[in-house]
Amino acid sequence: MKNYIITLLLLAIMISSASAQLLTGLIDRKDLGVQFTIPNGWFGQEAEAALVLGSNTEVGLILMMQHEYSTIAEIKAEADAGLMEEGIMLQRSGNYETIGTNGIGAEFSGRIQGAQAKAYIASLVNPHGAGITIMSMTESDKFSARYRELAHLIAKSVKFSKPVVPPVVNEWKEALQDTRLSYLSSYSSGSSGGSSSSVYIHLCRAGYFKYSRSSSLSIDTGGAFGYSGGSGQGNGRWDVLSDGQGGAMLVLYFEDGSTNEYRLSFQDGKTFLNGNRYFKTNKNDPNYPVDCP
Question: Does residue 259 contact residue 6 with C-beta atoms inside 8 Å?
Fold first, then answer.
């Protein structure tokens, strides 16, 4: 369940956004192979790596996240280690309960964003792929059996099936194999200085990627010159998934468990990731070589 928790403050902002598309009732994501029902009085909004549920009449939040565990034993091992993410520290405080034939649930206690909090967390194993974790939470003094009920309601409504992959996903996956995606940006303010940044993503046919990023900032203050720079790099595996809206999304799964997600688009012969222009080159381009065997 780790690496999928989003801070409570960010979630609250997303839920309150008037421009967001709110989801209610039956949700059928054929691209993910999952169907479930949002409880009456609750509404959902998609956020990065999660579906966030809120209510105008009940306090607290519910998160729905995918996980990669294939057995109940793996879920228990992860749960017993506790949830230790930025701003969230929760430890199991209740006994495990069986949910249907493919799930378990338990109560957790701890702190979220510095406040005493409790949560009921249910996790389901999916025979077709990624499973589902449901986290129903609120402040400790407001927690009741209702949050267990909400998690169970959602969990028992979940139906898994084989994902239906849109053709555009396979098209992008084929087009991105053994390519290099390059993003370059620079800004100059004349005599006062400027900045530049670059991102390079090498997507290898074998399923792994190489990623590098650099940035620099220079400031000229008339006699005093300052410079600061940073760089980071990582690697892992990559995939192209449906974005749930008929399009495709590039996902980078880093070795440390973090992920980068980019919505893919193609306009006028140009490739865009999250609306930013990236130069796509292959092994035949001597000026922008691809670092793949």
Answer: no
